[in-house]
Amino acid sequence: MSKSDISLATAVHRLVQWVGDGRALTSTGKLRVSDGQYLVSLLDTGDHPQGGAGLRRLSSTDNLPTLRYLLELTIEAGLLRIQRGRLLQVKKHAQQAATAEGVRQLLVENVHRTAPETLAPVFDRPDLGNAALKALWGELSEAEEAPLAISELAEVLWNAVAADPDVIELWPVGKQDEAKAHFAELTASVLLEYAQLGALATNSELTIVQLTAGGAREVERLGATGVPVPR
């Protein structure tokens, strides 16, 4: 998400509340242009109101990338759904979604759910991703609120999965440099997702990370397993 004066959770909360009892979409399942322009302001997305410099008018909300990202994230997290040409709130989470903090927790749970797939170094091995996620929160918990180098943290996560036969088969020990570099990038992307939701804090260069008070509460919630229970 682009630089904004409001948090990611607040933006998603505002989006869900704006949807209310439902909003009509275009025939192609997109937000209407007038709605998109309004949401750019309401959510402080930073998108160009005409869809880009030099354009006279917005022709499609597809040209509002940050708004599109927020909508996709909100649907992925189970807060909104599309049905019969309308954007609707998911009743299951309506009570929790009534507050920005409730939305933030749902978004954190969504990162817990998607992170194992991101961190799995072998396709269709979410168990390896879960092992990496457990190692991540274990390291953060042990360090408490002390800063950790992201490069060193990525190394710890890699070591938690690198001995698996499937990993060794794909990337023998002598040929792991490229795989490790890519894994480090994926680790940084997951850390950034948590940081956008206040569970972690990072510096502007994204080289160090540390647990926040909110992240410490998440450690307590995850418990000994270090992996969230599917909802």
Please list the strands of the largest sheet in the order they lie side by side: 1-3-2
- Please mark out the parts with pLDDT under 50 across 5 or more consecutive residues, or reply none: none
User: What proportion of the residues form beta strands (DSSP E)?
Assistant: 5-15%
Overall mean confidence score, pLDDT: 89
Number of strands: 6
SS element count, helices: 9
Major sheet size, sense and barrel closure: 3 strands, antiparallel
Oligomeric state of the chains in view: single chain
**Helical/strand content category:** mainly alpha
Shape, please?
globular
In sequence order, what are the helices and strands, one letter per element?
A: HEHHEEHHEHHHEEH
How much helical structure, as a percent, in the residues? 40-55%
| First and last CA, distance | 26 Å
Radius of gyration: 19 Å
Secondary structure topology:
Layout: H1 8-19, E1 23-24, H2 33-42, H3 65-76, E2 80-83, E3 86-89, H4 100-119, H5 126-143, E4 148-149, H6 150-161, H7 165-170, H8 177-196, E5 200-202, E6 208-211, H9 213-222
Antiparallel strand pairs: 1-3, 2-3, 4-6, 5-6
Helix pairs in contact: 1-3, 1-4, 4-5, 4-8, 5-6, 6-8
Question: What features would you describe in this structure?
Answer:
This protein is mostly helical and 231 residues long. The chain contains nine helices and six strands. The strands form two sheets. It has a three-stranded antiparallel sheet with strand order 1-3-2. A hairpin with a 5-residue loop joins strand 5 and strand 6. The two termini are 26 Å apart.
